[in-house]
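Reviewers of the previous submission asked for a worked example of the structure-prediction workflow described in the proposal, so we include one complete record here. The input consisted solely of the amino acid sequence. No template or homolog information was supplied to the procedure at any stage.
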Amino acid sequence: MAAGDTRRAAPVTPSRGDDVLEDAPDAAAATLSRGAEEYLTWLAVERGRARNTLTSYRRDLVAYEAFLAGRGHRADDADVALVEEHLAERRAAGLAPASVARALAAVRGMHRFRVEEGWDGDDPSADVRPPRLPMRLPKALDEDEVERLLAAAGGDDPTARRDLAIVELLYGTGMRVSELAGLSLGDLGSERGLVRVLGKGDKERLVPVGRSAARALEGWLGPRGRPALEPRRWARRGDAEAVFLNARGGRLTRQGVWGVLKKRARAAGLEDKVYPHVLRHSCATHMLAHGADIRVVQELLGHVSIATTQIYTRVSPEHLRRAYEQAHPRARRSAAQ
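From that input alone, the workflow returned the following structure tokens.
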């Protein structure tokens, strides 16, 4: 089959490390060239990219190859002008700069893959510049607001015990919503105070659980919590092992966790400030503000690069100022005068 031929897209292997909550369109129903399909397979198998990343890249490549076909071209005869025209068309369609940058990353990755595989002689996207993106600082709740959210999640019925454990665990560990939804009872392990988390790219890490989160988790797993929501017969394989259950006794999905957060945020008067990863950002920001080593926070959150963790130091100028005054000899001397 030639590199430009199309075929039915293969489904992407699911991953529990997804960060994106919105549902993507059914890109698996579209057709892509062999080169694009093999590139996506390489990303999944060799690079361990998460399902939602692959879904987004597939959607971007479907749009790119449809654009090329509309102008009588294929990936093997694309040039710089066509790539730039495609991006301009995406911008004109209303895509945000970050989405345009991701579309270019997908196109560039595919062309680079085709060159490395020997299908093409050069990469027409190599010299195309991505749009400049403004630095987006994650917004965290302050500590009083976290306390309000925790108070709103409290209660003695099974769902309240579950919701408190969810909020405590998200804030106490900094794990992603999808990571929490994917927890199974076996992940709680035998080692006291540790939980095994499966993150992006199916990479495992052990995360410590603080006393407050452990106490809330014990309340949920105790007789008046999770057992009260267990069904007589489990509907799906794996539900019996889920740490968090919905009202019907099935595994609570990431959308379900987000629903819990919205409900409790509304009760706390914080609806406008709470979004899926706000407790993750709050955990990192508050730990750094209280003097945690940035490498520890990097390990806790499962960041591959410390540059990703460093963004939280920009969120708290007070943390930077205090660290500077404690570490710089001239700053200490000036403060003492």
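Residues 1-28 have pLDDT under 50 and may be disordered. We consider this example representative of the routine output the project will generate in years two and three.
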